[in-house]
Structures are given as structure tokens and as C-alpha cells.
Design a protein that fits this description.
Radius of gyration: 28 Å
Number of strands: 46
Strand order of the largest sheet: 12-15-18-21-24-27-28-31-34-37-40-43-45
Strand content: 35-45%
Number of helices: 3
Largest sheet: 13 strands, parallel
Helix content: under 10%
Distance between the termini: 93 Å
Structural class: mainly beta
Shape: globular
């Protein structure tokens, strides 16, 4: 009887004991890792050299260690676009000496992989820069490190070209200005595997060690920054100032560790093409600009990792005078205190389109006005899973923190559509979260809450039917009521 019972063991247990189920097998796949910068057999300068490696893994990379001549010099456990980096100080190494760099990636299961290159310490630099540039000048990586000792200007028709691999270091308070009153051009175009670095010449480096870059009315349209890192600037409040109608292009750049903002637009200065950039670890907003130039912000940008409360795009008082789309940038647009972002033109209808998923925050007494005495429209069409939000900028929002979105009498009704929008914590101007004034926009599937007055305030002899607005939208916790018609 015992033998018969033993033979009756279920077959699925026998199958499991023979390894038939592989779902719990340990991860045996090693990560991949490639050193991007420096390149193999490159010459590197005396000073801080950025080592950058790309690492990926099917389960996740835990860290990348960096070794020089067999000794670990550091590691990085975070990455931007799978790129890990560490600064290697070569100051004590002899010119002409050759060294081995190894990047070792370790995945979350402990599997590892390495990539190794050799480099030589260059005898070319340092190269000191202390004079204004009025001709055509080129900085080469063979002259690394380039040391800027004081404020210098690129102007009077001058142009500065900075080649891939250049390391440019700034003494305390130094800066580079471009186009002050006369024409100037700066072209700093690196490569994905050979970036250009602008950094502090102080040891150790700290935010605000140097002033940064200034671009002014004479800046030419050829000015461009690509695959650059700009760090430890901001002594004057921002790493980059773009002012007085200056325009430049920027892509695949990193601005970090500014003592203030990353980039500040002033007096119609702006970046015309802004794509695939990262602004992080700044003490202020990553980007501060006027409403009419929000339209130039492209895709692939990251504005996170800045000091608490500053992961937002600061939008000042002013008008949107060109039809534009405000894209979802992954962080809120934040309208400054007492600011009014108005939309419209005296000559042709200006239509502001707000992309689904976008959040617009308002500081105290701030508001947005569509079509007050000027022709305008607003198309804010979110989705049920990706709504558009108009709300307070306060850390602990309260009813009445901001005023309202005002749709006024000069709008083009057919170009005013609000769908799947969330309006909260407004009413500070006395007219609710949404004020519709002598206009007839389409309002559907929106929600209105926490107003210090009404959810929606409908006024004039031309406005949407109040009963329809109330039935086709959601209202909650509005102090004076949901929909008001005087």
C-alpha cells in the first residue's frame, strides 16, 4: 500500500522538480556599457576631465563605476538618457603620460560588464583668454583647458567658434557676452561623444563661481549651442541671459548648478529652437521667459531636479501676439504674481493652443485674458486621461489664490474650445475660476472646484447657456455656487 501511494505523486510536481518552470530563473544577462567621452586614444587636458558612459540593461542598471589605471575614482548611480558620468582630475599627471580608463556597469542583479579605453594627457594648454573678440577666432581642444580670466565680448563683427572636446574654464566673475550693440556670433557645436564643457576654474567648484553668458541685440542668427554642458555659473542671477531681441539656437545641452535661473529671457530675447536640453540642479527656475516666446520651446527637454519649488517654467506678465502652441513640457508653466498673460492682436485673430496634459499655475492675483479689446481664441482640448489644468502655484493651495481665465468680448467664438480642463483655487478676482464675458465659447467635460466665489461666471448678452454649462461639466466646493449669471 505504501508503494502504491508513493507512485501516485502528481505529475506536475515531478515536472517542477525537473526544472520545467523557468519563470523564477535568476537574471544572467549582463548590462551593456560604452565609454562615450573621452574617445579611445584621445588627448585630454590637465584639469577636470568628464568621463561619460552609456549603460543599459534589461532589468536596470544599478551603477556605473569609473576606474583609472586599475583604481576606482568614483561611481554614478543616476543617469540622464542612460548616460553616466564622473569628473576625473588629471592636474597631477605628467604631460604625455598614457592612462587606462575603465567603466564598469553593474545591473540590479549584480551582473557586470566593462568598457576600457586609453588616453594621453595633453601638453597643449592652458590657453588664457582675456581680450574681446572682434575677428574670427577658433578654440581647439588641443589648447585645453581654455581659461577665461575676465569678462570678454564677441562683438564688432567678431565670431567665436568652439570645437568639440573643448574645456572652457572661467575665473571668478568672468563671463562671455555676445552682440552688445554690434554684431557677434558664437558657435559651440559639440558631438554626442565629444561634448563642449563650460565650467568653473575654482577648486572646489560651486554654483555662482562665474557669471555666465549674455546675448544681446547684435547676436547673429548663426549663434548656436549644441552638445554643451554649462555649469557653476549664475553669479548674476542666471547661467544664460538672452536680451534685447537676441535669438539663438540650443539643442542637446545641459545647464546645471546655476546659482540662480538656468536661462532668463529679457526684452524679447529668446531661444528660437530649444530641443532635447536638460536644466537641472539650479537654485532658481530652469527657464524664465515672456508669454510670446513660449512657442519656441520644443520637445525632449527636461526641467527637473532643481531646488525645491522651482521645477516649473516661469512666465512673466505680457502678451501672446503670435498664434502658438504651449506644449506639455513635463513641468508646469507658472505665471508670476500679479501677472496677466493676455492673448490677442489688433490686426488678426491670435489663437493660443494648449497641448493636452499641460498644467498652468498662477501665483497670487495672476490671471489669463483671452480677447479683451483684441481678437483672440483659446483651444484647450485635453482628454479624460490627460487633462489640461489651470490652478494655484501655492505649495498648499487655497480658494482665491489666483484670479481667473477670462474669455472676453473680442474672441472668435469658434476658436474658443475648452474640453477636459480642470479649473481649481481661483476666484480671487471675484469672477470665479472661469469668467466668460460677452462671448460664447464651447465648454464641455471640464471641472470647476475650490473657487473662492463661483465655479464659472457668465456675463453679458452673449454667453453659453448656464443650464447647459452646469449639466455638461462638473462643479464642486465653490464658495458662492457653481454657475452665476448676473
Amino acid at each position: 500500500m505504501r508503494k502504491a501511494a508513493a507512485l501516485s505523486i502528481p505529475l506536475f510536481l515531478v515536472f517542477l522538480s525537473c526544472g520545467g518552470d523557468s519563470t523564477n530563473e535568476p537574471d544572467a544577462t549582463a548590462p551593456t556599457v560604452t565609454i562615450l567621452q573621452p574617445t579611445h586614444n584621445a588627448s585630454v587636458p590637465s584639469g577636470n576631465v568628464s568621463i561619460r558612459a552609456m549603460a543599459t540593461d534589461d532589468e536596470g542598471v544599478a551603477k556605473v563605476e569609473f576606474h583609472v589605471d586599475g583604481t576606482k575614482i568614483g561611481e554614478d548611480a543616476s543617469a540622464v538618457a542612460n548616460v553616466y558620468e564622473h569628473a576625473w582630475n588629471t592636474s597631477a599627471l605628467a604631460a604625455g603620460s598614457t592612462h587606462t580608463i575603465r567603466a564598469r556597469a553593474v545591473d540590479t542583479s549584480g551582473n557586470d560588464a566593462s568598457d576600457t579605453i586609453s588616453v594621453t594627457i595633453s601638453a597643449g594648454g592652458p590657453t588664457v583668454h582675456s581680450e574681446n573678440i572682434t575677428g574670427n577666432e577658433t578654440w581647439w581642444p588641443s589648447g585645453n583647458p581654455h581659461i577665461v580670466t575676465q569678462d570678454i565680448a564677441v562683438w564688432e563683427g567678431g565670431s567665436l567658434t568652439i570645437k568639440p572636446g573643448c574645456l572652457v574654464k572661467f575665473d571668478s566673475g568672468a563671463s562671455i557676452g555676445c552682440g552688445w550693440t554690434t554684431a557677434g556670433t558664437i558657435v559651440a557645436v559639440g558631438k554626442a561623444d565629444t561634448t563642449i564643457t563650460f565650467t568653473s576654474n575654482e577648486t572646489p567648484a560651486s554654483p555662482g563661481d562665474w557669471d555666465g553668458f549674455g546675448f544681446f541685440e547684435g547676436t547673429t542668427s548663426n549663434t548656436r549651442f549644441s552638445y554643451c554642458t554649462i555649469e557653476y555659473a549664475g553669479a548674476e542671477g542666471q547661467a544664460i541671459l538672452v536680451a534685447w531681441d537676441a535669438a539663438l539656437k540650443m539643442d542637446h545641452c545641459t545647464i546645471r548648478r546655476s546659482a540662480g535661473r538656468g536661462i532668463f529671457y529679457d526684452h524679447a530675447g529668446h531661444v528660437e529652437q530649444f530641443n532635447n536640453n536638460t536644466i537641472t540642479e539650479c537654485a532658481g527656475y530652469p527657464l524664465a521667459l515672456d508669454p510670446d516666446h513660449v512657442r519656441h520651446l520644443g520637445t525632449g527637454n527636461d526641467y527637473t531636479g532643481n531646488d525645491a519649488g522651482f521645477d516649473a517654467i516661469e512666465v512673466s506678465y505680457g502678451g501672446v501676439e503670435t498664434s502658438a502652441t504651449w506644449r506639455d513640457q513635463g513641468v508646469p508653466y507658472r505665471v508670476t504674481e500679479n501677472g496677466n498673460v493676455w492673448v490677442g492682436s489688433t490686426t488678426t485673430p491670435i489663437i493660443l493652443t494648449i497641448e493636452a496634459g499641460t498644467t498652468i499655475e498662477f501665483e497670487a492675483n495672476a490671471e489669463m485674458t483671452i480677447g479683451y479689446t483684441v481678437q483672440a481664441g483659446i483651444i484647450a482640448e485635453g482628454t479624460s486621461t490627460n487633462p489640461i489644468t489651470f490652478t494655484s502655484a501655492a505649495a498648499s493651495p487655497q480658494p482665491g489664490d489666483w484670479n481667473h481665465l477670462w474669455i472676453a468680448g473680442e474672441v472668435v467664438d469658434a476658436q474658443c474650445r475648452l474640453t477636459h480642463c480642470i479649473f481649481e483655487y481661483g476666484g480671487g478676482g471675484g469672477y470665479g475660476n472661469l469668467w466668460v464675458h460677452y462671448s460664447n465659447p464651447s465648454i464641455e467635460d471640464c471641472s470647476f472646484g475650490y473657487s473662492s466665489t463661483y465655479g464659472a461666471y457668465l456675463e453679458g448678452d452673449d454667453h453659453p447657456d448656464a443650464a447647459t454649462v452646469e449639466s455638461e461639466n462638473t462643479f464642486y466646493s465653490n464658495a458662492s455656487g457653481d454657475v452665476y449669471v448676473p
